[in-house]
Request: fold
Amino acid sequence: MVRAVAWREFKSYFTTPLAMVFIVIFTASANALTFYIGKIFENGQASLERFFLYHPWLYLLLVPAVAMRLWAEEWNSGTVEMLLTLPLSTAQAVVGKFLAAWAFLGLALLSTVPLWISVNILGEPDNGVVIAGYLGSFLMAGAFLAIGSCLSALTRNQVIAFVGAAAVIFLLVMSGLDIVLDVFRAWHLSIIAESIAALSILTHFQSLMRGLIGLQDIIFFLSIIVFWLFATVVVLDRRKGS
Amino acid sequence: MIVLKGLSKKFNHLVAVDNITLTVAQGEILAFLGPNGAGKSTTMKMVTGFLAPTAGTAAVCGFDILTQPLKAKAKLGYLPEGAPSYEDMTPAGFLSFIANIRGYSSRKERAKRVAAVAERVALTEVLQQPIDTLSRGFRRRVGLAQALLHDPDVLILDEPTEGLDPNQKHHVRGLIHDMAADKAIIISTHILEEVEALCCRAVIITRGRLVADSTAEALLASLPYHNAVTVTVKAAEADVVEQKLRSVSTTKSVKRLSNRSLREESSIQLRVLSRDRQPITAAVSEALQSNTMIALTVERGRLEDIFRTLTLPD
Reply:
């Protein structure tokens, strides 16, 4: 059941040129950030740290673009009524759609592999670290996507879904930056600062990016995904009931 | 097979559906009639498990839609209002997806099901065209195919013939009629002739309330001019004829109608209402044997009039 929903959703990305456009934009901007802002050459290190560094910001805009249509489009076209009166649970529909979008983002992420190959040709990067980076990036994309899924379930307007998701993700990313944390530290509220940092996506992503595949980081991302998907189910069931 | 018990739905303070109780048995076609916004679609959405009722319950084939939603949904086929479908897909792809969800897991079985249902609703020729390029009639049939695919025991069709041309309407009605024997079917419609053409039972809903539940025939029989006879005669003979008509034993009243037919200035229409709405045609024609009748029509009554009486606010 979940597979049927996921497979239909995944195929639907490729019925329009949108999927290809998205993948091209993703690859181009990921590489542009790495070379022009990250200055991977000038840095002189054979690592992809400069590449992964900008992923939270890249995803901040691109993941809501993928997520916004997940449910808003179903509400807008009325297909949600057909989908949710089929013999499948709301949770199965939510997970199916999420997995399709996540797989699509995974595909976009795979399109950056040539960069990894290039770095291997030019130098000798620690490929274990790179793999951890890819894993972290993929998990982070999933977490953002789950947030976007929930915001998309709230509205029939894709623009609102996009802006809403981007805003929530922005807050979650920002909370890991020193600019924010220093405010609390300055007030001697280091406990609050540390708890915010512990909940920040950035903190957990950075440890994966540096090659530390910590169980707590993986669990952190997975629990964000589970929480927001659960919220999506609750939102959909409430909208059905109202 | 379909049981609604005290089904109610409130949206904030608006009562959309107010305490509807009814059952539909196997072999029965039930038509929901009512003005726009009367609560027909809302009722259907609750029966199919898309909306949760504020009070009351609905059960499909014995499965409560709230406590055993998956089992109830497996038993029913539903065509939502406007026949929504994934427009970027082809009917073949879309129906195959539905078949997959409906539990036809092998590819072969799915293809067989899709081909069979496409044949049934006359969709075969466009199976490989994207749905958003199809005409309204075909889109409606895609929705219908989706509802019929698993040959469900219970069918709930929200305006199944809306937006179809007369030929297509006829085809869809035929389809519904042919399936009726072993299913319980609820349809909603504005088209009153459809109720007469198709349904054994009609339910009129207005402002969320059920105001009539009866067969089309019985509804018609309740009209004051049911079985009345209208005769058109020459103006010169009108007075004589009127006298004769009044003397018929079963006549209740005779009324001159304003001459709307523009047939001839010289003709006059008389409407004869019978006592207790019993048939009066034979008696009338016998009484007027020696007069020239230009026309004689028997009024069955129009559902539209019942609809208007029951649904217009007082």
